[in-house]
## 1
Amino acid sequence: MTAQRPPFRDPALSVERRVADLLGRLTLPERVALLHQYAPAVERLGLAAFRTGQEALHGVAWMGGATVFPQAVGLGASWNAELVHRVGEAVGREVRAMRAADPRVGLNVWSPTVNLLRHPLWGRNEEGYAEDPLLTAGLATAYTRGLAGDHPTYLRTAPVLKHWIAHNHEVDRDTASTSVRARVLREYEMPAFAEPLRAGGAVGLMPAYNLVNGRPNHLSPLLDEARGWSAAPLLVCSDAGAPSNIAGTQGYLPDHAAGLAAALRAGVDSFTDHGEDSGPTVARLTEALERGLIDEADVDRAAGRLLATRFRLGEFDPELDPFPAEAAHDTAAHRELALRAAEQAVVLLRNDGLLPLAPGSTVAVLGPLADEMKLDWYSGEPLHRASPLDGLRDHPAIDRVTWEDGADLVRLRAGDSWVSVPQAHAPAVASPASAGALDPALLPGRTDLPPLTVGPLAAATELRLTDWGGGAWTLAAPDGRYLSVAEDGWVRASADQPGGWVVREVFTPVPHGEGHLLVHRASGQPVVVAAEGLKVAAPGEPGTEFRVETVSDGVLAVAEAAAGSDVAVLVLGNDPHINGRETEDRATLTLPPAQEALWRAAHAANPRTVLALVSSYPYAVPEADAALPALLWTAHGGQAAGTALARVLTGDVSPAGRLPQTWYAHDADLPDIRDHDLITARSTYLYFDGEPLYPFGHGLSYTRFEQTGLTVAEEEPGAFVARLTVTNVGERAGDEVVQLYASAVDPRLPRPHRWLVAFTRVALAPGERRTVTLRAPLDQALGHWDVAHARWTTAPGDYRFEAGASSRDIRCTTRWRVAGEPAGPRPVLRRGLRAADFDEVAGAELVDLTPREGDAVAPRGGGGTAELRYHGCDLGDGVAVLTVHAAATGAGSAVTAELGGVEATAEVPAGTDRYAYRPVLLRLPRPVAGVTGLRLTLAGPVRVGRLEFG
């Protein structure tokens, strides 16, 4: 090899050889510098600067104009892997095209989010595909393969799955520990990550902020297992700021050098911390090297994985990289795809025949989202927009459209003066969330407009007040600009939309005297009237009391508009930057009271009222379901959302979206948002014992389908093939989503009511009949995690296969018998027993056995009592003594074991080290033999790692 072309520049060599050669040419400081998100250039070797991380959840985000597709939960509602694959391809092409124009656009995309939508109050519900692991995995595989491309050598982009693992709440998200038992981890959480990695689309993982079983996810020993799912080197990128949390908010390790060293050893390759400033990360890793916490091999392992990704992205072979040539941005094909995706995301929840709308109808389009196309934190900046009002106004079948948003028109009074918005001298601009900056969180809001003032009644400005619920008000000036507060503290009418990482456009009314204080939610301070105008108060400064005078009642305006039209279409839901988003979980499933009042008023004025819910998450609307003739739901559907909704309402498109998660009827149906144990919490469609408002997989059509003749056969070893006939027996063309479920007929341990094993979306003309074939591996479809033997297994016995239109609408059924030997009892004499491998549990949580690996069990909250049950323990000829390895950090700790009706208790001596396990002997009054169950009770601040029998 010549000096002009070193081996790392030779595309004929393997990636492994090229990486090894390049690593050998880099100094240790240069290799350490590669580990920060913003890796500097190495000019002497011709290496460019490189940044991990480009958000692309449903379009290219934060980097300027791009095609905006439906939110991920909306793509999930399509149940269409082929569609999602095409969306991924389009987004990948736009990443490439936008990078050609702006090198800040990164090719390492942090998408998709595959966390399961286990709990509908999760603030980030909009980011996931579904509550089901198989549906999520299938769509994530399709999206990542589209993003990555199908070239055997090079990647279109390098997708990273978020967020590893069991991440489903925002409250205390960086300090709370999620307790996840082995069955939930293996059967529910991990499959959503495993399939996209095995399929080769995803090339990386991002650990989540939370701890799992007491250990930060950035130190997860399970990362090694995930690496085994990927044929190529798996890239692990930290979440933003998370490396500092290990020794910071989490206090898990004593200092930052130790925290970053532990993360590097656990498998984190790229550290996202301190924005573009790599200095602190490099200094901490360098200190860790000097202290012997890590060595050069640890650095090289991570740097090698980063470089391997860069090689696969074509950075070193620009003449061979095929993807720049196919880059495309805002094409007609992408715009058409955005429309098709938005159409397929619409779910018809209820319809008594009112829909589709009759040609020539007059329509009142009502509600706070009627003339909106809302974006979320991970949206790009759309180059095209269509609200529901736009879509219906432009539709030729609609005769006349009227509009009311339901906002109250108000004036604000402070003492004897009234609030006034000065005349603007500059146009409104987009909110920080869509301003095209590399880091929208850094944008402080506009300061070039004059602040609001107070004056006489004649100068008062009438503001549109929208109540989003939960104490969240937005106020808009007559020209549509929202009241906002920049970092200088002045209140201005300056924002096009609420948005940004810090939402500066929300005010909370707090009763005070005969009026209210207006507390600016972002700063937590009340608004005061100063000599120069309105501003937020300094800490400790009292706020000004405001009185709200209603000039026009939005509810009455909605009722009047509804009464004057043939049909009222009420568009309700959420603003994705308000009341449920990243950092903020929702408090309730119910609609905001102000929105409840709108649909009730519209329906009272016009029984022909359609409720269209446009939201990032489910709502509990049982009364609306009982009263209204038609309900629909769609996620925020991107740039073509309004057109798509209009085409469904008018019948141009027969709706075929299906719910990707359960819609519960009441808040009381939900477990605590921190309870991830689906089995004991009885949550998601898998275990929920109640009656949902709308079940997982639900969705109606304008036509009717039959599903008949289900058969299942093992046509090749280890896999089943299911076939059934689907017929469109209605008078319209439409899509049916065939959902195949399985259930265990007589399970030995708790299994779900049924679980999804395959699905497909089928387009059928009126009268058309088609044979649908579905395939899946038997062990994947029917297996479960056997905690007694620490393995994946398919238990022998009878299984029921069910095909239907939802998880509760089963159309045909057949049985399948799996032969084989039962797993047998637990071999506790030979292998002992891990405390975490329980079959039943009450009052316990899983914690870290040691900082590096393993799980232990403790009473929830570090005290109280916990009970664990282990079935089928084989005690052989007899056991008289149990040795419990336990650690206690306080007095009053004890363990009690009951075997075959024989019980023993022992105290656990208190210590100061939660990892200082000591053997505690429990001597049974008499030996117990044979196969029996074990009940273990823990009391006090104690944790148990394992048990031995003798």
## 2
Amino acid sequence: MVRTKKNLLTLALAAAGIGSFALMAEQAEPDSAVAAAEEERVEVIEVRGFASSLFRSLDAKRFSDIVSETISADDLGALPDVSMADALTRLPGISAVRTGGQAAEINIRGMSGGFVFSTLNGREQVSTSGKRNIEFDQYPSELINSAAVYKSPKASLIEGGVAGTVELQTASALRNEQQHTFVVNARGMYNDRANEVPDGKESGHRFSLSYQGKFLDDTLGVALGYARLFQPSVATQFVGLAYNAQKDVTGDGQNEFLSEGFEIQHRGGEETRDGYMASVEWAPLSNFSLKADAFISRFDKEAFARGFRVKLGGASTAVGNPVLNNNSVIGGTFNRTSQSFTRVEIVNDDNRDYNEVDSFGIKADWDVTDRLNLTMDVSRSTASSDFRNGLLWSLVAEDATADVPVLDPNVSISYGLNGLNLPNMGFNQADAFSDINRVMVSKYGIYPYVNSDAVNAFKLDLVYELDMPLIRSVEAGVRYSERRYSNDRSVFEYGSDGAFLSSQPPLRLTDDMVDIVDFKGKFAYFPSYLAIDLDKALNAWFPQGVPQPIQTWGTGNPDVINSPSPGVGPNTGWSVQESGQVFEDVLASYLMVNLDTELFDLPLTGNLGVRRVDTDQTATDLANVDGDPLQGAQFIVDEAGLINGRYAPGIIGDRYTHYLPSINLNLGLTENTQLRFAAAKVISRPPINRLSSNTAIFISDDGEVSGNSSNSPFLRPFEATQYDLSYEYYFGTGAFVAALFYKDIKSFINDFTIQEFDFKAAGFPVPDQIINEDGVPRATFDGAFSTAVNNEDGGYIRGIELAYTQIFDFLPSIWSGLGVSGSYSYTESEVDLVNPLGGEPVAMSFEGLSKQVLTATLFWEHEGLEARISGRYRSPFVSTQIGIDEQVTNFHSETVVDFQAGYQWNDNLKLLFQVNNLTDEPTKSYFGQQAQTGTLQFFGRQYFLGAVYSF
């Protein structure tokens, strides 16, 4: 049986220590004498730790039936990385986007996280991000036994990854070599920039413990794991904001572009992650097994941002001595006028993000006959995120001690950007920023984002082994999933960020509420400011307690028909309109044949198949029908008791079918070399939040129906046809791999206007006729609908990947454990996206694409000592910076270097020392051109000292 052959091969690889690269998978089952002779000829190199993980990963790549990369751990807790995002960046063609200094989102082959599909134990995972891509920092590396990145799909894999699919695997106790293993991992952590941030914490810790055991004559396996991370999050940053205003500042009759402003801030906080893993396997018969597993993660982040937010004032500001980069103003003196809003806001923001991820599943595996295998899997994945964005604004008064304080109108701001270096800066009010007799709190707002996402899935797979010269086996299967996503917005606002209101007067600060904060290091020349104790300020301003945020139409909404509710702001109708649900039901089936034959007397293996995917997606909708009851208008009451009768609630959506063929071929050129080819049609579904609906529909007096929506439940998936070709050479102490890839991508999401859109067919409540203001009946007819659509214009992404790994065992004695592992990838694309945030629209590359990505690790092991230094370089790329809003910018190239050393004290105890971000690499971004600074953010180095104890 082929199934038996695979098991024999696995045993042979394990016996060879590093995977016995000289041994090829036999085409016929050997007898015991031949097998023994082969085993004697295999060179066994004794390696442990990092090198052992590398070679197991190469084994997995070599014998995979698709183009893939793998990370493998000796045991639970053996991976050194803080999260799986860090671990995955060691693989060829994979890079990370750092958030707060930590890798969170990964990019594969030049494509951003939205094109990456992820599974855990073969099951689709939902995300706390409110999008499709999971946040890998939610997954502790200590609880993951292996991770694979599938760069080419096969029909049996769940669809969804144009860039690739990441498969995370937790432990299987019955596959563990030991009868019982117990691992404890403890590390202390220190950040060397925390002392630059007021109230920044310097120290943290990581702790994990895990157990794997086999019972009842190895028929019952139990695996348990717990991992905790507590770490400070600190950064000092300058953030330039988008160029969204125009003014003729040179007097030549042509407008130049003005930035909204910039931020200079300290950021700090705490991140606490608790992860839990459990699995129980039962194999009462040799042909049947049942496994139930659970993964739970709780990731809480409490963060603050303190410093300045500078508003330059828009087109009405007075600009002197302008400095230009093309047609964008990158410096000058900005003075407040009676018409402008030029000001400096002292910000003391408080953000809290509570994330929960749960994944549960039960899988049954049954060899019905010697040829037929059935597997059935039932799973549930849920994720929820409660992000509370609390903002406290303070402004400069002429005299904060006055009975009726007045905003200081004398505002002059001088600045000059220095590209990827910190700017020059000057404020005429600088002395006032740290004076409680001048600074007053003017506004407080809370803006929660509450997301929940869940998918229930059922999967049935069949494998039938054949005794044929060409086809080794046939696979077929079906999968049904139900996904439910909801987004709830709410709001509380009091005061104004640009004025002192008489109806909601500002708060005068007292000495016990504030500390004077100085910038340090490279930022030391910026003015001092007041850091405000949020709780003390709010208790003084709201002695009865701060009201909780609610969903509300707002008192300024002209459609509200009853009396205002106290404490509700005027322009908050978005909190109702941006809340809603998305429903996605998917039925997929596939048929695949596994090949095992010869081509020109060379062994040829692989698979050929097709996957059919039927999708039914809908979303709740509030259609603005101008209060017409014939179009379904209803009275909708918000949480403040305000009533709006303009909207018609409903559910709208679409159904569609995809056929996804795929082929994977592996030709064995020699015992040690092989050639792979893969081709497939692939899809990535739109971000789940983009399928929500916030539609406004209008009917003119002549009956024309028109509408608009920033999202759309009619969006279709991204589509691509992709090709892979790779050459792999394996030798006794390493491997060399060269690969080419090409993706022809279609169906990008763009904002577009569809003429003569069929509103009725889409599910909108459109009447057959209306009565106009003159009382004349008019038949309705379809007009334009502006919304997010799939643009059929696409383009290619293509590139090359090189990877090399070797242990230099030929070196003498102490140096025989020296080794190197590295990869290089070059990626290019004809896809140009246009970014207007820097003023003039600028063509930019595909989001997430770095032309060059380089990883290199030099490692050494000798008599229990182990050390390695790793570097990750990526050339400039496009991603999203976080300012007042998310803004797409160009990120500068970066090189992140990590170091780790360890000593195996005895068979049970290993001591570890680790430094992340050894060179204190900052994040730097810009708007189209380096002269227009985006983000300059410095995080500091993280030091870890600890031990791993196992028995």
## 3
Amino acid sequence: MSAPAPLHQYLIVDLSAGIAGAYCTKLLADGGAEVVKVETPQGDSLRSWSASGADVAAGTDGALFSYLSSSKKSVVVDTDEADRLGALLGSADAVIWSRESPFATVESLTPAALAAAHPHLVVTAITPFGLEGPWSDRAATEFTVQAWSGGVIGLGRGAPDRAPIHVGGQIGEWFGGAYASAATLAALRAAGKTGRGQIVDLSTLETAVAGLTYHPVTFLEMRKRPFRSERSIFVPGVAQAADGMVALGAATAQQWSDLCVLVGHPEWVDPEAPLAITARAGELAPQIYEWIAERTVEDVADQASAFRIPNSPVINGANAADTAHFRERGTFIKNPTSGFSQPDRPYAMSAFDLPRPEAAPRLGEHTDMLSEHRETRVAADTPAVSGLPFEGMRVLDMTAFWAGPSCSHILATLGAEVIHLESTSRPDGTRMIAGVPMTDELWWEKSPIFSGLNTNKKSITLNFQTERGQELLRELIKTCDVLVENYTPRVLDQIGLDYDAVRALRPDIIMVRMPGFGLDGPWRDKAAFAYVIEDASGLTWLTGHPDQNPVEPYTIGDPNAGIHALNGLLIALAHRDRTGEGTLVEASMVDAALNVAAEQFIEYSAYGNLLNRQGNRGPVSAPQNLYRTSGLEEHGGLDEFGRDDNWVAVAVETDAQWAALRQAIGSPDWATDPALETAAGRRSAHDLIDERLGAWCRERSDDEVVSTLWEVGVPVAKVMQPHRQADLEQLRARGFFAQVTHPVNGTASHTTLPVQFSGEPGGHTMRPAPLLGEHNTEILSGLGLSAADIEALEQDRVIGTKLAF
């Protein structure tokens, strides 16, 4: 008989609608939780959904629903008979709730009412702006939330002669759902300590800030300038080869130098300005693209890999399942309901198998369970003093850059002791992302990116290229409950620290490995940066204007990997809590990205339709686009950089919203055409609407457009510069930014977490990121070393507090 699944003890009631809630509960069901989806007699709207407009026959379900609802149960309850859910809620562990659900208007089913009636419940609310604050009831879509977050401009994404570009594929919904799953599991873990539930208040605006921007407010306040002020297309980026699209990256001086050699022009390297990559690459782009166009995708990728230049074929719905790396790793599986191809789970465990997905439920298939007798759960009268889910857990954080540290950052913020491992000769790469001259004193301590990703952590430096460093590393591992690493696989393999070796040191350890492309397969050793993961997963394919090559998001690939790795870790922790057994969690970056890009693979496999990029339009709203405004009055109609580059995002989801917009702009003749009263009519006339609505916006400031349309319930947003996030009153009201004082950098705003826990009423404690090697003495003393031993290690350069290049 097979062992119970890690999450088998949890009963989750799904009162959500849309992708975010559905993906959250899919991840929980994949871990073995019993998920009961509550639907009205009309059924969840995703049952009839197809992003490509494929016909979903009556009596059948759309492919996306079949993917997201595998292994769940369905009960049907009308909104006026919510009392029928009483026994189910009384025996459940958690509820997933969203504002879009028809049940959201039922007074007894609001998060506050659920928590009051059932104090044992974890109630996870997924909303655009959070449950509280001045914007809590404002209209929003995933598209307008991206605009508010600063994620539409991101890291300068998009050519300056066109509108900025949002990240396609409704990515905010998927990322928000992954975050909601991890937050729910963390809260359930806390409930196991306190005996009481709580409200988990997740804002997708804040998850978009976390996933689509790179600590821009911290950068502005610490460095007194924006991280990036101009928009541009990264070169090479995505290029057309002889037989398809391929992407190459040159993010560092070394990569640019190697690229110049690769294309036969070493003389392009400017020794006087080795870091002036963007401008130089832009000048030479035609010759680079010509070199790529003369070769096949495979030839370009092979040659680039030989130079360690980040690269990938550009994956989409049509070519993903046939890609050799994915075939060899069994990345795609058959859907148990309809047989189409879908990504497998984003992580794998060595000690146990996750349950295989089962067919999605028919509408109301399990309604009879509402009449079953259930034991009512009772919350503890006197909860424990602390409900931090990871308190008492020691984590060795062998990660760098963005993906791994974003995972361990959440652990540290929620109570774990996280020890960030670096060496004086190989520090975390984010210490270099600051533009600080190396002549500055302690220049490596002045990175806003490192500061933002590593609050609440401790730092130890160990040169594990030395024998003594490896000995100490092994001793440190023995004291840790969890090890998280995101090196390329060969790094730990070369020093004999694969999972078997780590388990020999600490039998119950959970080791989370986050390789770019997995621990095996043809791409095992391929260099992995966020943009390469986006290229290799379809995220790039859906981003950009339809008449141009796709544009790399350059952001989401890293934090998306981090939040999926955390989900995998939480499942592994649930297994260890029950069995005492540790495990290896393989959570590759590309598998995480494929899961949030799943819709395009599903659409192609199920219907033969290839989803394509649509600029700033989308599959749900019509109209949906960015419209230029008259600019900032204080800057003479220009933006803060002196450019005519001010935009608003508008997205109309419903016929009622269209009627409100039409009236708000004065009911001009063109907008009163009866054909525009339906979504299909507006979609077919999208060019006309863009022209006329764009002209109306062009005559007004972004503030005027937003106030006019938002007041009548139309989803609208300013396209924010990322470094202006702290100006948003909603983020200020929710305390999303905390003031953190650093011994070198002074006080600056740092993001907390995009979720608030009612069981943590004081908010998140935020300590500054550690100085390099700041905790060497504390940690090594804990391993039994004397002061003399530690001094000798410093003299031998095994440890240190200053860089030693």
## 4
Amino acid sequence: MADMPLAGFVVVDMSTGIAGGYCTKLLSDGGASVIKVEAPQGDPLRRWSASGAPIGPGEDGALFTFLAGGKHSVLADPAAADDAALIDDLLACADAVVWSPGSPLADEPRLAADALHAAHPHLIVAAITPFGLHGPWSELPATEFTLQAWSGGIVGLGRGAPDRAPVYVGGRVGDYLSGSYASAAILASRMRVLGGGAGELIDLSMLESHVMGLTYYPVTYFEMLGRPWRDSRKLTVPGIAKTKDGLVDVGCGTAQQWFDLCAMTGHEDWIDEDAPLTITEQAGEKSAELYAWMAERTGDEVRDLATAFRIPNAPVASPDTVESLEHFAARGSFVSNPAGFRQPDHPYRIAGVELRPASPAPRLGEHTDRYRNAPGNRRHAGLIQDRLPLSGIRVVDLTTFWAGPLCTHLMALLGAEVIHVESARRPDGTRMIAGVPMTEEQWWEKQPIFAALNTSKKDMTLDLGTQRGRELLHRLIATADVVAENYTPRVLDHLGLDYSAVQQIRPDIVMARMPGFGLDGPWRDNPAFAYVIEAAAGISWLTGYPDRNPYEPYSLGDPNAGLHALNAVLLALEHRRRTGEGALIEAAMVDAALNIAAEQIVEYSAYGAVLQRAGNRGPAASPQNLYRTAEIDEFGRADSWVAIAVATDAQWQALRGALGNPDWAVDPELATAGGRRIQADFVDEHLSGWCRERSGDKIVATLWPAGVPVAKVMQPHRQPELEQLTARGFFEVLDHPVNAPVRFTTMPFQLSRGPKPVHAAPAPLLGQHNREILTELGLSADEITALEQEGVIGAGYCG
């Protein structure tokens, strides 16, 4: 494994649970040596099964086994002097440590994240906590469920139906997002260390990860346009629908796709380009006819037609069907774990770069004697430098919409020079989607999603349909370290810009391609929006009520893909640093989604269990649900909710005490999670009655200080009202030459060595940097003027 990009990078894992486990899995898969330090009780995840499958003595749960593959385990009691010395030796010889609260190790004051950073200045210390290390909420309890509520992710994109409570996204996806962010932050910080810098503290807030992954820049949207993205829950139509033989997801993300759906179903008469209604509203009016049309056909018939019409579509995968889907079978998307179950392969493929194959997980304490008797080489801190982690890296950004721009946006915020290439005739799609009328002056500069995703970037316009435009792009690529794109594969193939062509321009280039379904396989050329990616990967399967079709999360697929692509780019850049060789990255959106939905296939193949959606209930807490409060919401509806999730028996006792120990709650059978789960309806009935008489603020003020995980279900554009986000400076206000100053999210982690502020500049105007970049490429002022006159470049929309 010496050829892996992170070979020799030593990471001490002092975390418990999914977020830290997934972070260190990504690092281990890249070749890092991960030493998992566990207290004598071991990581509780060793005993976990979402289906409740029995785990025998000396055995580990399948999810733990998946996440811990290739790692080592050291058992240490922090109260024992010899073990304390062992931990100190491990930290002195490591490059990074991943830390989370709530274990006997983390509870030891000298092993707190701040203390580790102070005692070991060479270390990259990544702390993964619910709310961040500091701030008014830093010590308060939370679960995945309550974090989704606080973030606005439960209601953020209007998921669900208005006749029931909104629903969270199933599968603890936020934990995986947090782990992915932590891995990327560590890899970026490592680049700063390799440049001669000292270590630093990475303070990651899981709440902020949820904001970034489960909502769509709602604060920027609201402040720029004066209205929320959605003001009510609406089913996506057709969305996930029943066919003769199962469930399929067919969606319309653009007006053209709605028109094509009308034609596909034989209803050209529905097409009205001047309709005052949105395409969602138009589809909603025709929902009965659309559902009836789909119910008369098989899933294959519906999907074949949708594919022919270039309408995004996918089967809705379940744990027992996902591996058999033709695309995944053709691509070998699943591999065998040495323990015997099946798991997703890596979330990205990097040609010519070795990643660790599925490997055995360590037994508890298996490697303790090895490290006690043979300590490694002690590390020394470098000099503290002001350079940003990715300074000196130039990125040619050919991406559009969300997944690709998020990847390159994070690179820009971390110091890379990112040049976003658009066309004045066909600009980035996010300049077109917010409904700003074309009658407004410079309407294309007033789109909040583009504004939020492209701060700190430069912008250049090139008409790649012209020979001259392609020649200039080639000259730009010759100066770059990274090229990133997220079109369907046929687009770049048509332009003659596949990896072999780009490599001829710049032999050591890192090229990140982010197609929805990959560069091969039967679904290769299918258009991919977030919702079909979520359906195909199984994320949708766990979202919604058991007696209804699943709901589309309709958010997660894009940012999750961009985040995993960033991890892959950073691995490829490290490979280039070591070898001088470039690399082709295939970061398919669906491969990233399969990895954060891994628990489903892992549980099914290990235990034969098909995990099911259960509304707002879940396997990790009981009770867990949304409860209506006494308030009328800002839209005039009795639609205000709180989330309560009791994850431990101690929290149940705290809840009972906070309620005043009512008679209904003192039943001894409710003292255990199993007993509460059996009587879930009974518990919910009483909690619902109690909450219905109180405001959300009153409920939170009663339960949270007592130690009960609780949250108001926030409208996402109200995120700035959360005092924890304000205390951490999560939003920064930026001026803009066209738009009024508004707030923008930063990153869900803070680096102790910056950037501060995070945003270096607002999103660029269309073609703003044409002259600057073309002059650098050697063109004269007259030549640039001629390009403008010929329409090869442009400084405004001319579609």
